[in-house]
Amino acid sequence: MRGLGLVSSPLLPASRRGTTYSGLLHQTDAYVTFAKLSGLTAADLARSGPVAVDGMDIWPALTTGAASPRTELVHNIFGANPGAIRVGRWKLLVGDPGGGHPYNGYNCWNASKCEAKGAAPLCAKRPCLYDMETDRPEQHDLAEAEPAVLKRMTERYAELRRSEVSLAASGLCPADAPKVDGCTANR
């Protein structure tokens, strides 16, 4: 995520209320931030589940406007399925996260080299690379123009993919979980 929109809380300094934070943040950061605000320590968080907590405490950045402690984030990596990562200003899209259905703009309308309507999404053919500082709507794929960046990003994606914790290994969803629950979507 980039920018939380309007930030407001009586816990924030008056100078930060109603502002937009433009640092790199991820939804997992909210858990760590609120846990630490409630008095939990890093050791408490480490003992809180069967897999490591991967969020960061962003409270200092939100209260001061300082740079985010986060330099990268995973949007989505699930085995061989489509995914996306962000490292600094760069976003790499691999495959078609929408599975052929409209999904957050990944189905051709956002790609500058998109083929005829109904064609396979650009990122399904090869990874796409976007500069999120200059192209927030992801309209200009820079994969061909930035081969060195593309190489670094695809290598990082592969590294993160190898470190993926499977659902079974996580212990978060029992085999007998109901058909309709938070585990179903991740099976």
Molecular structure report:
- By secondary structure, the chain is α+β, with helices and mostly antiparallel strands.
- 24% of the residues lie in helices and 12% in strands.
- The strands form two sheets. Strands 3-4-5-6 form a four-stranded antiparallel sheet. The protein has a two-stranded antiparallel ribbon with strand order 1-2.
- Strand 3 and strand 4 (83-87) form a beta hairpin.
Proportion of residues in β-strands: 5-15%
Identify the strand order in the major beta sheet.
3-4-5-6
The run of helices and strands is EEHHHEEEHEHH
Instruction: Count the E strands.
Output: 6
- SS element count, helices: 6
How many strands, which pairing sense, and closed or not: the largest β-sheet? 4 strands, antiparallel
Helix content: 10-25%
Distance between the termini: 25 Å
Mass-distribution shape: flat
Flag low-confidence runs.
102-115
Rg estimate, integer Å: 19 Å
Q: Structural class, please?
A: alpha+beta
Q: What's the overall average pLDDT, rounded?
A: 78
